[in-house]
Every structure is written in C-alpha cells, then in structure tokens.
Specification:
By secondary structure, the chain is mainly alpha-helical. It has one domain: Up-down Bundle (Amino acid/polyamine transporter I), CATH 1.20.1740. It is built from 21 helices and no strands. The longest helix is centred in the C-terminal third of the chain and has 33 residues. The two termini are 41 Å apart.
C-alpha cells in the first residue's frame, strides 16, 4: 500500500483535473483497467516462480538474457521517479512552512529513506507499516468528511463534464493517472524473502489494487466537488483539505496523510529496487563486487546507485510535475515487458505452472500479455505526444540503444557464467 499510494494521487490529481475536469474519478477507474492486465500477468508469475528480483528473473528465464538486462536497465532509469516522492514531500512541507528550502527538504527525505534501507528490509518494513496506517486513515478521513461538502453529483454523469476535451484527452488523463495505481506488482521483487509467496503475492496485488481504486475515486470526487473546478486545477489535495478540515486536523492530514504517503512510497521503492540488479550482478551483467552486502544483508553499492539516480532531478532543479510525468512514461515502456513473459510460462516452466496456487488458463496466458502490450503501446504514444519533450525522447532512445549494444556484447559472458553455475 505504501508503494502504491503516493505521488500518483497527491500530485497528479490536480493535473488530471486540468486535463479532464470532473472526469478524474472515472479516469482513475479506467486507470485500474489499464494497470490490471499486466498486474494480473505478474501476479501469476509471482505465484508460479517466486524469487528475489522477481520481474528481472521472469524476463530472463522466460524471454531471454538480453531482454532481461534491457528491462532491468530501463527499470533503473525509471527510478528517476524517486525524486518525485521527495519533491512532493518538500512541496507539501512548504504548505506548512512557506520559507523552507524545498530542495534541501527533498534531499533530506531521500537520505532518510536511503539510510533506513541500508539497515535492512525488516527495519524498512517496520518503518513502512507505521506510515501506511497513518496515511490510509488520513485519506479515508479526507473522503468521508469531504463527501459531505459535495452537493452536486450530477456533474459526474454527463459526457460534456466528464470528457470536456474529448475521449482522447480523457484516455490520456487515465494513462497519466495510472501512475497512481502502479507499484503493487513490485511485491514480486521480494518473492524470495516472502512467506508463502505463491499465495500472498497475487493476494496482496489484487487486494491492494481494488482498495486503492475505491479510495482514489473517493479522493477525486472530493477534490473536484468541494470547490469550483477552476480553482482546483493543478492544485494539491492540501488546497481542498484546508476547506473541509479544522486547522488542527488539516495539519494532521498534510503531515500524517499526504507527506507520509510520499515518504512511504519512496521508502518502499528503496526496499525492492536493488533486487533485480543484485541478481543481474551474479549473472555476470555487471561486476559482482558491486553486489557486495553489508552486515544487514543490504547491497549498499547498488542501493547507492539508485540513491544517486533519485537525487539527480533534485540537484538539477527539475520540477515535480515533470519528474512524475517522465517517470510515468518510462514506466509504461518497461512495465509491459514482465507481463509478456507470462506467454512462455507453461512451456518453459511447466512444473512451476502446474504447481502454482494461483494460475491463469493457458488461453489467457497466450492472449492477455498481448492485449496489455497494445494498451501500453497506446499509452507510450500518448505520453510521447502529450507530455514529454523531444529532447528527452532523443535521450531515452540513445540510452535504450546503448543498453542494447552493451547487452549484445556482454551476453556471451553471462551465458558462460550461468552455464558454469548450472553444472
């Protein structure tokens, strides 16, 4: 829950209102549909072949070595989005103390989560649990109290108010808001460290998505229904919270709800982000020396790589909105690759498929990944024309090409090393 509930709802709701007005609740519902198919695919993989570094190992074993590394390299680049949580935290802190240095606050937030995860996944998980309880309570209070202030629900039933700029723009908003739904699939990264992963990975993913969608729809109705629509476009949830809560509870909401939502997401990403890269190092893609662990079992050099990636937008002064949008776009690209691995599960790992506690029919495994590919491909197209600059598209293409060349060059080393270990 801490991984999922974060920047997507507290940062992008106001942007979604700017795009599609009163259609934001429905756009969140559509976002669930966009995220559901690839999440279902990954849940089936997690149930059948749970492992540390789950999504990387699924792609490696069921599609191929080079594709596995390509996916992992995109995943690393996509963690620029770490900055969005820290920057969002700092922006909300500025609501309470307008004169603070937001870049410094964002950097401190990043450092705190980095240190917590250096101390091991169990410490980070305890830290996470406390934050998630507070943030869920705060957001539920926002919905319950806020709904009593909404006096016109008819605006959510008319096409001209739900899709004021047309169907295409509404769908574009849903793809942007899908960022608020992603994250549950990364529980599979901890498959090797989870209790009863064959049952718990799909259970956690599906339950989390269902609850989050209902919560987000409620948040979106309050965000659009309490104040005049023009006044809330591009605004944070704190803008509406100030209207519906007494000052003391408003402070609790901002600190215990929104700010903790962002920190919990940041902390959750740090807890799993090294897993695939750790396995890849032992596969031979990078030096195993980079995967050395401290006494808490944390691969501290790899964790530091992600720390640097996340700090880069903060240091360079990139805006919160653009970091979030850019991370979402990259996430659409790499997010579909593990889902495609499901196509080969029953042929390459038939014994694992047969023994899985949660499994899809063979016909579903052969069709759902490609339906998800078409949906996500459309999302990449929308992101590239609606939100991302040409310069960043060129940079992304150069990065992807460089990774493919490296993967082609390095693959013989990986194949030889894995063959030796198999013997």
């Amino acid at each position: 829950m801490g991984q999922v509930v974060g920047a997507g709802v507290v940062v992008l709701t106001g942007i979604g209102i700017s795009i599609t007005g009163y259609g934001v609740p429905w756009a969140f519902a559509l976002a669930l549909g966009i995220v559901f198919l690839p999440s279902l695919c990954i849940a089936a993989l997690g149930a059948a072949i749970p492992s540390t570094g789950g999504t990387y190992t699924y792609v490696r074993d069921l599609i191929g070595n080079k594709t596995g590394f390509f996916y992992l390299a995109l995943l690393v680049a996509g963690q620029l989005v770490l900055a969005s949580y820290a920057l969002g935290f700092a922006d909300y802190a500025a609501e309470l103390a307008p004169n603070i240095n937001t870049s410094l606050v964002a950097a401190i937030a990043m450092i705190c989560c980095y240190i917590a995860n250096l101390l091991g996944v169990q410490i980070a998980a305890r830290f996470q649990l406390m934050m998630v309880i507070l943030l869920i309570f705060s957001l539920l209070a926002f919905v319950v109290v806020g709904l009593s202030y909404v006096d016109n629900f008819q605006v959510y039933n008319h096409v001209d108010t739900v899709m004021p700029a047309g169907v295409g723009t509404f769908i574009s908003a849903a793809f942007l808001l899908r960022y608020g739904m992603v994250g549950s699939e990364f529980v599979s990264e901890l498959g090797g460290e989870s209790e009863n992963p064959g049952r718990n990975i799909p259970l956690v993913m599906m339950t989390c998505l269902a609850f989050v969608t209902m919560l987000y729809v409620g948040v979106a109705i309050v965000a659009t229904g309490v104040l005049p629509l023009e006044s809330v476009k591009g605004q944070s949830l704190a803008f509406v919270a100030k209207e519906i809560f007494p000052h003391s509870f408003y402070l609790f909401f901002v600190i215990g709800g929104v700010m903790l939502a962002l920190i919990s997401s940041l902390n959750a990403i740090f807890s799993w982000c090294t897993k695939g890269l750790y396995i890849a190092a032992h596969d031979g893609w990078i030096s195993e020396k980079l995967a050395v662990t401290n006494r808490f079992g944390t691969p501290y050099i790899l964790l530091s790589v992600f720390f640097v990636v996340g700090m880069t937008p903060i240091v360079t002064g990139t805006t919160l909105q653009y970091v979030t949008i850019l991370g979402n776009a990259v996430g659409i690209v790499f997010g579909i690759i593990p889902a495609l691995a499901l196509f080969n599960l029953n042929t390459r790992r038939p014994e694992a498929y047969a023994a899985a506690k949660f499994k899809l029919p063979v016909v579903a495994m052969k069709t759902l990944p490609f339906i998800a590919l078409v949906i996500y491909g459309y999302g990449v197209y929308l992101s590239s024309i609606d939100f991302i600059s040409t310069e960043h598209l060129i940079a992304f293409a150069f990065y992807a090409a460089t990774i493919l060349i490296y993967a082609k060059w390095r693959e013989p080393v990986v194949v030889k090393k894995r063959a030796a270990e198999a013997r």
